[in-house]
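Hey team,

Filing this mostly as a record. A colleague (T.K.) asked me to run one chain through the structure pipeline before their review meeting, and I want the input and output archived in the tracker in case anyone asks later how it was produced. No errors, nothing strange. Just documentation.

Input sequence:
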Amino acid sequence: MRIIDFEELVRHLPYEYQAFNVNPENWKDVGHTEIISKIFSGKESVTISRFDLFHSTRNLKSFVIKLLMWGYPNKGRGKNIENLLLPENFELLISKLSLAIEKKNISIQEVKELINGIKGIRLSTLSKILYFSRVNVESFPALILDQRVINALNGDSKFQDIGIEKFKNLNYTNAINSYVDYLKFIYGLAIQIKALPDQIEIFLFMFGTSLKELEGENGDWSDL
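Output structure:
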């Protein structure tokens, strides 16, 4: 089974529509009250889509908080979100992000320095921020690389596309070292099947670990 076997599906995935509902109760104790109040505007919940984020980068502080809500509606596990939103860490992120957007293209070494230099940020979050900010990494437009996409690519993957074998030992700890290879792989596939790289990434997120190779004409139900 290969990713390219699903090219028709991939080409029709409406990636900009992907949205998550966010409850203000989950975001009431993280500071930045004025920004968060404006995002919710008294509503019981808000729905944030990829389209919304692509068009929210004018105000970087509001953009990053919206992005965190989209990526982690319940604030995720651990204390990474709380740490990232601490004033000193948040201001450093906004400063570094502003410079990256101005440069438009950054090196993988600069990506590593951002992860190592800002408490609370890891590859999953940073790749989202760079993606929606339309920042290039080593001349490739950034794409999201989170745990679900990693699981779709690594040794547990059922896909057999040419080049995917290099991600056999991919995990969240070492993923930063393969991030540029990931971008090259996805952009190569996108050219091959005439799809957007964003559509391949969301295909991996949605279906990457939930598909099974068909076995036999009618399947094997002999054990039932």
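Quick notes for T.K.: The chain has a mean pLDDT of 93. The CA atoms of residues 38 and 62 lie 9 Å apart.
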